[in-house]
Amino acid sequence: MITLVYLARLREALGAPAEKIELPVEVGTVAALLAWLRQRGGPWAAELAPGRAVRVAVNYDMAQADTPLKAGDEVALFPPVTGG
Amino acid sequence: MPVRIQTEDFDIAREIAALRGSDARIGAIAAFVGLVRDINDAATVNTLTLEHYPGMTEKALDDIVDQARARWSVHDVLVIHRVGELKPTEQIVLVIVAGAHRGEAFAACEFVMDYLKTRAPFWKKEQTQDGERWVEARASDEKKAARW
To answer: CB of A80 within 8 A of CB of A10?
Structure first.
């Protein structure tokens, strides 16, 4: 299982703050996870479409497309930050 | 604690006094305060709501402070960032850097703010006369952070 956390505009667009999912065997990286989530269609396909500004953190560290994923990870998806 | 996330307001004079204590090595203190403005992108802002990602926020800010301390010889750094609902004129963020000389204190303070704005997981939502909207990230902030 991994925990998915959605923040700010993404939480509202996707309609949930978090969920737990069983990591499919073919999903080994952040890029693969985004592609897998896009297959849900609807807001998932629209919000996570290639070219949309989506940032990903794995276990509280900023991640890249090739960052590996493993069971137990907390993966957060969010728009570019706007604090300060 | 060099990093605090809180809903309450802060008192800059009290925070500076606490940071410097009686440390006679400190010859310069640089401070930045970010405030809520009443106009943004041509709309009147009634309320600003700030959310963050608990857990990651503290880690990201700690990391930014560590980087500042590694790059400049400064004695102390404090970052306070508020979350929740804020009104125009209210204080949002405070960065204080204490060091021996002003050059390093100024630079480290600006570095912390530039990195905070592009790397710390906070998001602003504005309530305007036309309804709610999420604040968009600015390319100019990325440029400022890339200078360092």
So the answer is: no
